[in-house]
């Protein structure tokens, strides 16, 4: 029976590469949050206050993302975390989902409470502050856009900023509509639209987080195709106990048993299998075992 494993460098996970950009984004958003909250209260604008609340969620999400990239690279000193702390980034994304849903709920509840009232909303500060917020959010979006395609942790922060950018557009639009029509209810309507948009983005991100925590096969990868490619290696007669999951963004993990008759071919089969998983499926950490047909106890690819 032959076995072996292979893996890439621990510091190579996707989130760590973009820590500097996350730090810059955190500084920009945190600074403008204070400005938007103050002017939102002064203008009595629900759209502006809700956007400030969402920006506060951005601050927490970006801060959590930053902390997670640091935690993920720490060495385990307890001897209990055999997979390291890479999942910290996924938990940070989960926190972002909860924050986004919380902001959405607050906006809707506040909008309902305003039904039947006619608040005085200052459109001038809405347009000016909303416009400045739009500029800040676009800059942060450009900083995080590339990283969001590689890291679920950064994607969570990016989704927050995308939603906040839409919020800034809504604030500007509401300010202009109030100024031209004199109808303050535009403020409430835009706030509800912002809340709905944020909720939808939260659900999308939440599904991705749950897929990772549920140890699903990576998106876009078919486990049957992986099994077929491993079974096609010369000398392999069967594949079973094949499991593939995502540890954190950019780090796919696999385990598998390969069945072969010729024990002399075991080392070559192991090497071919590792190469196939790495080059074809970007799985750099694979724990593989080659066994003879007579030694096989399991007959299925999965549990």
From TrEMBL:
Signal peptide interval: none
Membrane topology of the entry: Multi-pass membrane protein
Transmembrane segments: 22-42, 48-69, 90-109, 121-144, 156-178, 184-204
Stored InterPro entries: Cation_efflux, Cation_efflux_CTD, Cation_efflux_CTD_sf, Cation_efflux_TM, Cation_efflux_TMD_sf, CDF/SLC30A
GO cellular component: plasma membrane
Family in the record: Belongs to the cation diffusion facilitator (CDF) transporter (TC 2.A.4) family. SLC30A subfamily.
Gene Ontology MF terms: zinc ion transmembrane transporter activity
Domain (Cation efflux protein transmembrane) ranges: 23-213
PANTHER family named among the record's database cross-references: CATION EFFLUX PROTEIN/ ZINC TRANSPORTER, RE54080P-RELATED
Subcellular location: Membrane
The keyword Transport belongs to this UniProt entry's keyword annotation: yes
Protein name stated in the entry: Cation transporter
Keywords: Ion transport, Membrane, Transmembrane, Transmembrane helix, Transport
Sequence ranges assigned to domain Cation efflux protein cytoplasmic in this UniProt record: 219-292
Keyword Membrane set for record: yes
Source organism (scientific name): Aeromicrobium fastidiosum
